[in-house]
Amino acid sequence: MTQADRDLVLAIRAELAAIDPSRPCDRAAESAGLGTSLAPREAAVARLAVRLGREPADAGRLLDGRRRAKHVRVLDAPGWAAFDRAVFDWAAAPEHCRFAYLRGRFLARGSLSLASSRAHLEFVVDVAEAPILAARLAELDLPASWRLRRGRGVVTWKRTESVVTFLRRAGAGASLLELEARQVSRALRGDLNRVINAESANLQRAVAAAGRQLAAIDELDADGRLAEQPYVVRVVAEARWETPEATLSELAERLAIHRSTVQRSLERIERLALHGDAGTVRRAVRPSRRAAGSVIIRA
What we know:
By secondary structure, the protein is an alpha+beta fold. The chain contains twelve helices and four strands, in the order ααααααββαββααααα. It has helices at residues 3-17, 24-34, 43-51, 59-62, 80-87, 95-109, 129-139, 160-170, 174-222, 231-242, 248-255, 259-275, and strands at 110-115, 118-125, 145-149, 152-157.
């Protein structure tokens, strides 16, 4: 991630940590989401724990001048499963309490990564919690995958839409708008680059094809074989010579014929210049004897 992306991630986490739930049930749910032991590395999360009424084991280090919140341990309970069942009933909780719980879980165990045009959010939790957390997210129409990694459970979103939806429903506002604006800007730049690259490749192919066609017309006109071709072929050759930059569609519109007719005529000209009437390959294109005038078209 770039430094700007890291700053945005910190801003999103700080904004979520600054939310002060007004409902007592939301406060209890978010406190439960912070988990059985808390070692916050961010001052905003440490202040949240204090606001929610958690009793730190070392409050002096929690909010001192250097913000050394990472040394704090909060509510050292026997285990996540027993604590979770004791203080938060997910099945009976309303949706606002569920998202308050998930907000606390994200602040305690979650990480957000922004790279290129993608967002990656994951919860690193106990092995027993991972499938339960994934199932709870699925109940909220936010399905996530989970796996084991180095003895821990990892619940992951890799789709930007899921990450943005979760952060919005968890309470992120201004910082999330900045994230969405960046995602839109990157997507537009990517689409624009793809269009430019495609147009450039098409232009290069068109220039190369026009060059081959002009060389073929030059050769056939020089040895008199162009005059022996059908009328339509000679008309197309004349139009190509006069407007080498024109596309097949533009030539067809100019001559009032089908594009496929123009394409077949030019393919015939190239084939004749390359193989000749008898099918033998010509190794080199002879210099043109054409004057500045145009191809003579005979009816």
